[in-house]
Amino acid sequence: MRRLAILLLAVSFGFIAQASAQAPTQTPAQPKSATTPKPATSAKPGATTARAYDRMLLRPALLKDKAPDTFQVNFVTTRGEFTVTVTRAWAPIGADRFYNLVKHHFYDNASFFRVVPGFVVQFGLSAYPPVSAAWQHADLQDDPVTQSNKLGYLTFATAGPNTRTTQVFISLKDNAGLDRQGFAPFGVVDPPGMKVVNMFYDQYGDNAGPDQDQITKQGKPYLDKGWPKLDSIKTATLVGAAGTAGPGKPAAAQKPQ
């Protein structure tokens, strides 16, 4: 398991990183929710209802669409809504990855699993283990840092150079110190939306928070059981024409192991 560099950075900002936190490249379970907004129900009466995810998320190598120069993403969360505006020129590689993930509903049902007051809100581990497994080696090359990690800016988390995958954080303050460490922002939350972001539950802390390895292996049920107060993303969708493409064929419900 690779420890996320963003967790190590918390120490330098006066926060203690969770020792067991892992990179989002583990087998089952990631809340970069690659799920479609509607649940799929088993055909048999009384069978367990399982949420469907876009099957294209199981093939990261095919999700290579170029993002528009600018685009917006609407997040509907358990605390309300906020909108992110992405500017591709800020970090083209990261913006393209984010665009493809959102287009295929990767972040739907994902939890804000790490909320450090006065530092960052982090998300991007899928609620679905098969999706997590598919993305564990889908690393990106780094973008040059052209913008500062200011309040409200979105940036991919890393586990070191050229290791960005699906995890993203929102700065809860001006984190200029992250600029020198290679963290390249690609978008920003609208000011009214930051009121929603600032309401996300933040009392578990890094030491008592969930283990990223277990999130990837077990999915959202792991979080719901151990950290039921965590806020989550209901849907994350592209705003406007870019977001009209329908999701792929949902995968069959996974049987309990």
Task: Give structural notes.
20% of the residues lie in helices and 21% in strands. By secondary structure, the chain is α+β, with helices and mostly antiparallel strands. The chain has a single domain (5-33, 68-241), classed as Cyclophilin (Beta Barrel), CATH 2.40.100.10. The strands form 2 sheets. Strands 5-6-8-7-9-4-3-10 form an 8-stranded antiparallel sheet. It has helices spanning 5-12, 92-103, 129-135, 191-197, 205-208, 212-218, 220-226; strands at 35-41, 49-53, 70-77, 80-87, 114-116, 120-123, 153-156, 168-171, 185-189, 233-238. Strand 1 and strand 2 (49-53) form a beta hairpin. It is built from 7 helices and 10 strands.
Write the layout of secondary structure elements.
Elements (H helix, E strand, L loop, with lengths): L4 H8 L22 E7 L7 E5 L16 E8 L2 E8 L4 H12 L10 E3 L3 E4 L5 H7 L17 E4 L11 E4 L13 E5 L1 H7 L7 H4 L3 H7 L1 H7 L6 E6 L19
Antiparallel strand pairs: 1-2, 3-4, 3-10, 4-9, 5-6, 6-8, 7-8, 7-9
